[in-house]
């Protein structure tokens, strides 16, 4: 099991440009969440995708958008990049379970994409 | 809204000794889960330990244990017999019982001295 994989690992973009980050969830997982982790801080929830739809969203502007594909993989798009968008972007996958089993409550994280906006 | 607070930005421990990392949280929910994640320089978040709010018994995973005080909304992590490989950022995280999203604290950097 490859776990959660993200690409690319590092990315440098210019202010105003657009960027797309990719995530493949852990095998058997159908829910993908994206987090932004600024330097020296904890991850902040951006949004979550399930059944190819955005199910929840954190306090991020519309410049941040996403997509989930039928194979459960996901993309995070950021338009009109700002210097403040420089961060580590983490993808987390999990199972959507109706009956909460504690063993299914954890999220598995990828290694992240380090985005630098210059 | 749920908030998670880690008041210790950095801590140091001698190899083989014990260290406790603190975490408090705020919520109005009754059903939730708490986690400690470890983030080494490789950046990958690794689950250390999990606690269900409905369980009174404190979770234990080998050298790692928690002190869960539900009324005080406190969730500390104790690492016994610290090893050099324990050096990393540690994040306390809250997960709602209903919504599958995590709220993280700001992290505690743990240094382990040989």
Number-wise, the strands of chain B total: 12
- Report the order of strands and helices of chain A: EEEEEEEEEEE
User: pLDDT under 50 segments of chain B (min length 5)?
Assistant: none
Share of residues in helices of chain A: under 10%
Layout of strands and helices, then pairs:
The complex is a heterodimer of chains A (118) and B (114).
Chain A lengths: L4 E3 L2 E4 L5 E6 L6 E7 L6 E7 L2 E5 L6 E5 L5 E5 L8 E8 L13 E2 L3 E5 L1
Parallel strand pairs in A: 2-11
Antiparallel strand pairs in A: 1-3, 3-8, 4-5, 4-9, 5-6, 7-8, 9-10, 9-11
Chain B lengths: L2 E3 L4 E5 L4 E3 L2 E3 L5 E8 L6 E7 L7 E2 L2 E6 L4 E6 L8 E9 L5 E3 L3 E6 L1
Parallel strand pairs in B: 2-12
Antiparallel strand pairs in B: 1-4, 3-9, 5-6, 5-10, 7-8, 8-9, 10-11, 10-12
Structure description:
The complex is a heterodimer of chains A (118) and B (114). In chain A, strands 2, 4, 5, 6, 9, 10 and 11 form a 7-stranded mixed sheet that branches. A 4-stranded antiparallel sheet of chain A has the order 1-3-8-7, with no helix packed on it. In chain A, a hairpin with a 2-residue loop joins strand 5 (44-50) and strand 6. With 118 residues, chain A is mostly beta strands. The model of chain A has no long low-confidence stretch (mean pLDDT 92). Chain A has no helices and 11 strands. In chain A, 36% of the residues are buried. Helix content of chain A is 0%, strand content 48%. Chain B contains no helices and 12 strands. In chain B, strands 2, 5, 6, 10, 11 and 12 form a 6-stranded mixed sheet that branches. In chain B, strands 3-9-8-7 form a 4-stranded antiparallel sheet, with no helix packed on it. Chain B has a two-stranded antiparallel sheet with strand order 1-4.
Task: Give a brief outline of the structure.
The complex is a heterodimer of chains A (118) and B (114). With 118 residues, chain A is mainly β.
